[in-house]
From TrEMBL:
It comes from the Bacteria. InterPro entries: dGTPase (IPR006261), dGTPase-like (IPR050135), dNTPase_2 (IPR023023), HD/PDEase_dom (IPR003607), HD_domain (IPR006674), HDIG_dom (IPR006675), PHydrolase_assoc_dom (IPR026875). This is Deoxyguanosinetriphosphate triphosphohydrolase-like protein. GO terms for molecular function: dGTPase activity. Residues 12-31 have a biased composition (Basic and acidic residues). It comes from Amaricoccus macauensis. HAMAP family: dGTPase_type2 (MF_01212). Keywords: Hydrolase. Residues 62-203 form the HD domain.
Length: 386
């Protein structure tokens, strides 16, 4: 049953460039399909979350993470009576703007781009789907609906100017100037679903990846809230279970616990707010999809554990430093010598320093972990043919 506050495809605010409607797919289904078939989406296969692409075949990549987020988003949207296709489209697109090497790459690019309008992966995702995907004859980008673009821009909440600079990232401001996304309000319930599905997925898979990497054990997790009782429940039901099965059973319970909490909490918030339309959700002044306060607090304890035992582990820190150096040296080299970039990019040599920096950042942000390492090696190592 469709909820009164669901986003209806027939009521979409449309696309920036007018197109005939599909006879077989809703506007949000077309958005989803265009995202899946985009070059940016394919590149997520070799962009990692915490570990670098070459460190192991079983760690999550941005692609597998995005698929997991989309699966969770569809489930939550279905139960709440929301539009599944819109939630899925936003979920699949939410990481398109991430540069190589996860948050390390983003932090490096953000610092490098601070004098030139900034860098933010959400803003970069918008730039990809509105400009950088250059495959269609009639327009640049994917020409997605307003609702999907809004969800990409605002799934984590309203986009407000930086309190110090008074500005928002250039790429986001540029996209908004072409198609006003009403940045000061919250996003649709479907976009909020995509955001919390992202939280559920990475809370679960960061634990899984950390266990696989040997950075901690299930015994270490026994002391934590939420996941600890899950481990205990598995041990009580299946004493002596094989380690891999024991880990899987504990994590799937943790995963289900988070989904159930979001569903219960969101139903309660929606019942209290009683929004009568999708637009009413945007103007409530607060999100309606999310964890309960208790679970949110307990998840912060797990994040603190991961920060110490995983994100700041010395082996991860070593690779983070290497990755940061790679991004910094690529940026400096291409900014000084744009002719070293492929022909479709090196025309930026004629631009001023800001324009050139933005093109260089776009080129680097589009790289996979593997390609960034290869490019760096070609540029730095005189014994590697470039």
């Amino acid at each position: 049953m469709t909820a009164p506050f669901a986003t209806l495809p027939d009521a979409s605010r449309g696309r920036r460039f007018s197109e005939a409607e599909s006879a077989h797919r809703s506007p949000f289904q077309r958005d989803r399909d265009r995202i899946i078939h985009s070059s940016g989406f394919r590149r997520l296969k070799h962009k990692t979350q915490v570990f670098v692409e070459h460190e192991g075949d079983y760690y999550r990549t941005r692609l597998t993470h995005s698929i997991e987020v989309a699966q969770v988003a569809r489930t939550i949207a279905r139960v709440l009576g929301l539009n599944e296709e819109l939630a899925e489209a936003v979920a699949l697109a939410h990481d398109l703007g991430h540069p190589p090497f996860g948050h390390t790459g983003e932090d490096a690019l953000a610092a490098l781009m601070a004098p030139y309008g900034g860098f933010d992966h959400n803003a970069q995702a918008l730039k990809i789907v509105t400009k950088l995907e250059a495959h269609y004859a009639d327009f640049d980008g994917l020409n997605l609906t307003w609702e999907t673009l809004e969800g990409i821009a605002k799934h984590n909440g309203p986009v407000l100017p930086d309190p110090v600079t008074g500005e928002i990232p250039f790429a986001l401001a540029d996209a908004n100037a072409g198609f006003d996304l009403d940045l000061a309000t919250h996003a649709s319930a479907e976009a909020q679903v995509a955001a919390v599905a992202d939280d559920i997925a990475y809370n679960n898979h960061d634990l899984a990846d950390g266990l696989r990497a040997g950075l901690f054990t299930l015994e270490d997790l026994r002391e934590l809230p939420l996941i600890g009782p899950c481990v205990a429940a598995v041990d009580a039901r299946w004493p002596g279970l094989a380690p891999s099965r024991r880990q899987h059973e504990a994590l799937r319970r943790f995963f289900g616990l988070m989904v159930e909490d979001v569903l219960a909490s969101s139903k309660q918030r929606l019942a209290e707010a009683a929004p009568g339309s999708a637009d009413a959700i945007r103007h409530l002044g607060h999100p309606v999809i999310g964890f309960s306060e208790g679970t949110f607090t307990e998840l912060k304890a797990i994040r603190r554990f991961l920060y110490v035992r995983m994100y700041r582990h010395w082996t991860v820190q070593r690779m983070r430093r290497k990755a940061r150096v790679v991004v910094e040296e690529l940026f400096r080299t291409f900014s000084e010598a744009p002719e070293l970039m492929p022909s479709e990019w090196n025309a930026c040599a004629a631009l001023d320093s800001t324009g050139r920096a933005r093109v260089v950042a776009d080129y680097i942000a589009g790289m996979t972990d593997r390609f960034a390492l290869q490019e760096h090696r070609k540029l730095i190592d005189p014994f590697v043919k470039g």
